[in-house]
Amino acid sequence: MSHNPRRQFLTQTAALAATPLLAGVAGDVFAQAPARKLGVALVGLGSLATNQIAPALLKTRNCRLSAIVTGTPSKADDWKKKYGIPDKNVYDYKTMNRMADNKDIDIVYVVTPNSLHLEHALAGAAAGKHVFCEKPMEISVERCQQMIDGVKKAGKMLGVGYRCQFEPNHLECVRLAKEKVLGDLKVIDANFGFAIGDPTQWRLKKDLAGGGCLMDVGIYCLQTARMLTGEEPVWISAAETKTDAVKFKEVEETIMWQAKFPSGVVVSSVSTYAANGLAGFRAATARGWFGLEPAYFYGGNRGRRSDGPEINIQVADQFQTELEDFADCILNKRPTKVAGEMGLTDVKYLMAIYDSVKKGRPVTFS
Ligand code: NDP
Questions:
Q1: Which of 3, 134, 201, 346 to mutate to test the pocket of ligand 1 (most atoms within 8 A of CB)?
Q2: Is 115 in the pocket of ligand 1 (CB under 6 A)?
Q3: Coil, strand or helix at 214
Q4: Theoretical Cys-Cys bridge with 343: which of 103, 137, 263, 363, CB 3.0 to 4.6 Å?
Q5: Distance from the alpha carbon of residue 62 to the mean position of ligand 1, in angstroms
């Protein structure tokens, strides 16, 4: 996977960004360690689980990697050795129901292809586990709703892996917008893309991915728009373009959308699987601007504001942060800020973007 440009651009600054802060906060983190760490079962041992989530779970103060679910037996052997996972905590997708009697597991973290999230989330919930699900939550509003209903019925908590909701540089931008530090927010330009490799991968298959670059990375720009405005769009208008009709036979290669928000803010966004180099946003305000470039990497996100100061808050591992928050929510019985409803709402707008492309006109929301 080292040839994968997606991983390279996301990881290139992560190590640099994470190290100093971790050293700085370690004392506090361990001082607060609870008596028992919640056990997390990782479902799907692909790139994100291997390179980001499992390493993050070695650092989390209130949860730990306790179990794995995989369809690939050779991976199970490697993970058992690497993370000291006992045989009894190894499952495949068909045996997840057996988790019900395993007290080592409190949370299932679903990291499989998008259209498998529902099945794996429901299996975890039915076994009496809380569910943390990667973005996009699922490939249709109906399937998101089924996940919400299923986890609710089980009396468990559901969270979606929106790491930027906890990223301090993003939160600083939300503060600048909300407090109108540079005046009213007027225009947001948010873009994210990468040149996708292997033409056979699931990200290019509609039934597994639900769509292309929009579902995968465009969702971050939508999140930025909703976070900065604190509003929901009035209308969305979109168009797509393809330069490789063979590779992108099933899903979009590049998609552009614009949206208007109730306060009058307009948002413009491009997501693409055709090129590297787009991974930031800029917000124009009545008296200036602010933004992050890069905004969406695993580490090293930073930016500027027009009145001078850099926005460059060193952050802990984003996956560690979101997982510790979810575990805190469970332990302290407080709602998560990245609830299933947020995931469903995003999927509603993603579907509206596709609908607008298909119809060739804006889609409005009442
Ligand atoms: P990968 O393709 O690297 O891994 C997916 C894993 O899912 C596979 O390795 C496999 O694990 C399992 N799997 C089960 N069924 C299938 C199937 N039919 N086809 C392919 N894989 C299958 O994907 P990623 O790790 O990059 O992405 C997984 C999820 O995480 C996606 O929803 C994605 O959107 C999200 N993601 C989120 C990111 C973030 O920053 N929050 C970043 C990257 C991805 P096994 O062999 O163990 O069964």
A1: 134
A2: no
A3: helix
A4: 137
A5: 25
CA 173, distance to chain mean position in Å, is 18
Written as one letter, the residue type at 198 is: D
Does the CB atom of residue 46 touch ligand 1 within 6 A?
yes
Q: Which amino acid is at 95?
A: T
Kindly state the tokens that stand for 326.
Answer: 């979810």
Residues in the chain: 366
Per-residue pLDDT of the chain (366 residues; tens, 9 = 90+): 334 545 544 544 343 333 333 333 333 444 455 678 999 999 999 999 999 999 999 999 999 999 999 999 999 999 999 999 999 999 999 999 999 999 999 999 999 999 999 999 999 999 999 999 999 999 999 999 999 999 999 999 999 999 999 999 999 999 999 999 999 999 999 999 999 999 999 999 999 999 999 999 999 999 999 999 999 999 999 999 999 999 999 999 999 999 999 999 999 999 999 999 999 999 999 999 999 999 999 999 999 999 989 999 988 899 999 999 999 999 999 999 999 999 999 999 999 999 999 999 999 998
Taking a C-beta distance cutoff of 8 angstroms, is the pair 232, 342 a contact? no
| Cβ 205 under 6 angstroms from ligand 1 | no
